[in-house]
C-alpha cells in the first residue's frame, strides 16, 4: 500500500507541476514584451488603455491622412481620401512602451455597438508590425509616432455580465 | 460504494430510472434555453449567447464529479485489489473524457461570441484542456502494460494523481487576474435568485447523477435495456436535432445586430441602429421584445442582440452557439445512453 501511495504522490506532483506551469504560462503577455520584437508577429497582449480625451486629432497611417475623433479611451479615425476608417487605441505597457492598436471601424462597431464599454486594461489579439509607424498629431502640434498592432479581436472577460440584473424575452 | 455497484447495476429501478432522468434533464434543458433569464447587457456580443450557461455549466460540473468517481474507484482498487473497481474506474474515465470533450467544444462555441475568439488560452481553458489530455493518456498508459495486476495498479495511481488537475482548473480563474473566465461565485451571483435559477441547480444535479449513473451502468455490463437503449438514444437525438433546428432556423433568414436603440419614456422603441450602419425610425414606436426594456442606467437592453424584423415587430434570435451547444449536449446524452445500454464491462 505504501508503494502505491508513493506512486500516486510522485505522479500527482509531476502532473500538478506541469499543470501549474501551463496555467501560469497562460498569463497574457504585457505590451512591454513587444519592445523586443523586430518582425511582424501574431501576438496576444494586455495593455493599459491611454485616455485620449475628447478632441480632434490628425493621424497619418500608411501614407494616408485621417481625421481622428477622440472619444476617451479610443478614437475613430476616418480617412480624408478613402473609405478607410479605424478605431484606434493607444496601449501602454508597464515600462512605458506604447503601441497604436488599430481595428477596422465597421468590425469594431458591429461587435461592440455604438457605445462600447472599454475597460482600463484590455487584452487584444492581432498582428504586431514594429516596422509600420502610425503618427498622431495632437491639437498642440506635438507629434507622436508609434509602432502598430493590427487588432484581430479584443478579448473581453465576461465578469461584468454576471453582476447584471436579469432580462427575459417577452411572450 | 462497495455494495452499491452490484446492487444498483442489477436493479430494475436503476435500469429504468436512468433513462427517465436523462429524458427529464433533456426536457429541463429545453425549458431553460427557452425561458431562462439572460444578463440585461454584456461587454461583447449578444446577451442571448449567455443561454449557453444552461448547457455548458452543468456538463462542466458533472465532468469534475465523474472524474471524482474515477478517483474513488481507483482508491477502492488500490485498497481492496478487486478487479471490478478497476473496471469501474475505466468506465468513469471513459465518460469523463466524453463529457470533458463536450465541455471544451461547448465552451469554445460560447467564447467565440462572448470573449471574441473561440480559443484564448485563458487559464481555465488551458487547465480544462490539460485535465482532458491527462485523462486521455490513461488508456494508452494502461494498454502499454502487459501484466494485468501492474496495469490496474499503475492505472489506478494515475487516475488518482490526474485528479490534481481538477482543483487546479477550479482555482485557475483566481490564480491570474486577467482570466476571461468567471469564478464560480460570479455565476452563482447571476443565478442566485428565482425559480429558474433553482432549476439550473436541479439541472446540474441531474447531469451529475446521469454522468455517474451512466458510468456505473457501463461498468456493470449495461443497463440491460436491449434494443430499447438504442431506441432511447435515437429519440434523444431526434428531440435534440429538432430543437436545435427550431432555434437555429431563424438565423438562416435576414437578421441584424442592434448597435444602438432609442427607447421613449413609455418604454417603447423609437429607433434602432443596426450593425450594417442602417438606422430605422419607427413611425409607431414598437413594443420592446425584452423585459426590462432598459438597464438601470437607462440604456436599451436591445443593444448587442441579433434580431429579425417582421411586420413591424422585432424578434430576438438565438445565437448559433446555443443551437450548436444544445446539439453537442444531445449527442453526449445519446452516445452516453447508447454505450451504457450496451455496457462495456
Describe this protein's structure.
The complex is a heterodimer of chains A (about 170) and B (about 350). With about 170 residues, chain A is an alpha+beta fold. In chain A, about 20% of the residues lie in helices and about 45% in strands. In chain A, strands 1, 2, 3, 4, 5, 6, 7, 8 and 9 form a 9-stranded mixed sheet that branches. In chain A, β5 and β6 form a beta hairpin. The radius of gyration of chain A is 21 Å and the shape is extended. The mean pLDDT of chain A is about 85. Chain B is an alpha+beta fold and about 350 residues long. Chain B contains 12 helices and 7 strands. In chain B, strands 4-3-2-6-7 form a 5-stranded antiparallel sheet, with no helix packed on it. In chain B, α3 runs antiparallel to α4, α3 packs parallel to α10 and α10 packs parallel to α12. Chain B is elongated, with a radius of gyration of 23 Å. The N terminus of chain B is likely disordered. Chains A and B meet through α1, α2, β8, β9 and α3 of A and β1, α5, α7, α8 and α9 of B. β10 of chain A pairs antiparallel with β5 of chain B, so a sheet runs across the interface.
Q: What is this structure, in a nutshell?
A:
Chain A is of the alpha+beta class. Chain A has helices at residues 2-25, 105-112, 159-162; strands spanning 29-30, 41-49, 56-61, 64-70, 75-79, 85-92, 98-104, 121-137, 143-155, 166-169.
Topology:
The complex is a heterodimer of chains A (171) and B (345).
Chain A: H1 2-25, E1 29-30, E2 41-49, E3 56-61, E4 64-70, E5 75-79, E6 85-92, E7 98-104, H2 105-112, E8 121-137, E9 143-155, H3 159-162, E10 166-169
Parallel strand pairs in A: 1-2, 7-9
Antiparallel strand pairs in A: 2-6, 2-8, 3-4, 3-8, 4-5, 5-6, 6-7, 8-9
Chain B: H1 4-10, H2 12-35, E1 38-39, H3 53-80, H4 83-114, H5 123-136, H6 138-143, H7 148-162, H8 165-175, H9 184-190, H10 195-219, H11 227-248, E2 256-263, E3 269-274, E4 279-286, E5 290-291, E6 306-310, E7 313-316, H12 320-342
Antiparallel strand pairs in B: 2-3, 2-6, 3-4, 6-7
Amino acid at each position: 500500500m505504501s508503494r502505491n501511495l508513493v506512486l500516486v504522490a510522485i505522479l500527482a506532483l509531476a502532473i500538478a507541476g506541469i499543470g501549474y506551469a501551463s496555467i501560469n504560462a497562460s498569463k497574457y503577455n504585457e505590451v512591454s514584451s513587444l519592445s523586443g520584437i523586430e518582425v511582424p508577429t501574431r501576438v496576444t497582449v494586455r495593455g493599459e488603455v491611454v485616455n485620449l480625451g475628447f478632441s480632434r486629432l490628425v493621424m497619418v497611417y500608411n501614407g494616408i491622412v485621417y481625421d481622428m475623433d477622440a472619444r476617451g479611451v479610443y478614437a475613430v479615425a476616418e480617412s480624408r481620401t478613402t473609405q478607410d476608417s479605424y478605431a484606434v487605441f493607444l496601449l501602454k505597457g508597464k515600462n512605458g512602451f506604447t503601441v497604436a492598436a488599430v481595428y477596422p471601424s465597421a468590425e469594431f462597431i458591429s461587435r461592440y455597438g455604438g457605445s462600447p464599454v472599454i475597460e482600463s486594461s484590455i487584452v487584444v489579439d492581432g498582428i504586431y508590425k514594429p516596422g509600420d509607424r502610425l503618427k498622431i498629431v495632437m491639437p498642440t502640434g506635438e507629434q507622436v509616432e508609434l509602432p502598430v498592432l493590427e487588432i484581430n479581436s479584443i478579448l473581453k472577460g465576461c465578469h461584468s455580465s454576471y453582476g447584471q440584473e436579469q432580462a427575459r424575452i417577452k411572450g | 460504494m462497495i455494495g452499491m455497484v452490484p446492487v444498483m447495476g442489477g436493479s430494475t429501478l436503476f435500469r429504468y430510472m436512468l433513462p427517465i432522468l436523462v429524458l427529464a434533464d433533456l426536457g429541463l434543458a429545453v425549458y431553460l434555453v427557452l425561458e431562462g433569464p439572460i444578463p440585461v447587457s454584456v461587454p461583447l456580443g449578444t446577451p442571448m449567447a449567455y443561454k449557453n450557461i444552461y448547457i455548458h455549466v452543468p456538463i462542466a460540473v458533472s465532468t469534475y464529479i465523474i472524474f471524482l468517481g474515477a478517483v474513488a474507484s481507483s482508491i477502492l482498487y488500490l485498497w481492496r485489489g478487486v478487479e471490478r473497481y478497476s473496471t469501474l474506474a475505466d468506465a468513469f474515465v471513459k465518460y469523463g473524457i466524453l463529457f470533458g470533450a463536450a465541455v471544451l467544444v461547448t465552451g469554445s462555441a460560447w467564447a467565440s461570441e462572448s470573449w471574441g475568439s473561440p480559443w484564448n488560452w485563458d487559464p481555465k481553458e488551458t487547465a480544462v484542456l490539460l485535465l482532458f489530455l491527462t485523462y486521455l493518456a490513461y488508456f494508452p498508459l494502461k494498454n502499454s502494460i502487459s501484466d494485468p495486476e501492474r496495469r490496474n495498479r499503475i492505472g489506478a495511481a494515475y487516475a488518482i494523481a490526474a485528479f490534481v488537475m481538477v482543483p487546479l482548473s477550479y482555482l485557475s480563474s483566481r490564480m491570474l487576474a486577467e482570466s476571461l473566465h468567471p469564478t464560480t461565485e460570479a455565476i452563482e451571483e447571476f443565478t442566485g435568485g428565482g425559480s429558474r435559477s433553482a432549476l439550473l441547480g436541479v439541472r446540474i444535479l441531474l447531469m451529475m447523477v446521469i454522468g455517474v449513473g451512466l458510468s456505473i451502468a457501463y461498468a456493470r455490463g449495461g443497463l440491460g435495456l436491449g434494443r430499447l437503449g438504442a431506441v432511447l438514444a435515437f429519440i434523444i437525438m431526434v428531440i435534440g436535432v429538432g430543437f436545435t433546428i427550431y432555434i437555429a432556423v431563424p438565423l438562416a433568414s435576414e437578421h441584424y445586430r442592434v448597435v444602438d436603440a432609442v427607447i421613449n419614456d413609455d418604454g417603447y422603441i423609437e429607433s434602432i441602429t443596426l450593425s450594417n450602419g442602417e438606422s430605422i425610425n419607427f413611425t409607431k414606436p414598437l413594443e420592446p421584445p425584452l423585459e426590462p426594456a432598459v438597464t438601470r442606467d437607462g440604456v436599451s437592453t436591445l443593444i448587442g442582440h441579433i434580431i429579425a424584423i417582421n411586420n413591424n415587430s422585432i424578434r430576438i434570435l438565438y445565437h448559433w452557439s446555443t443551437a450548436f451547444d444544445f446539439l453537442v449536449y444531445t449527442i453526449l446524452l445519446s452516445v452516453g445512453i447508447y454505450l451504457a445500454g450496451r455496457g462495456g464491462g
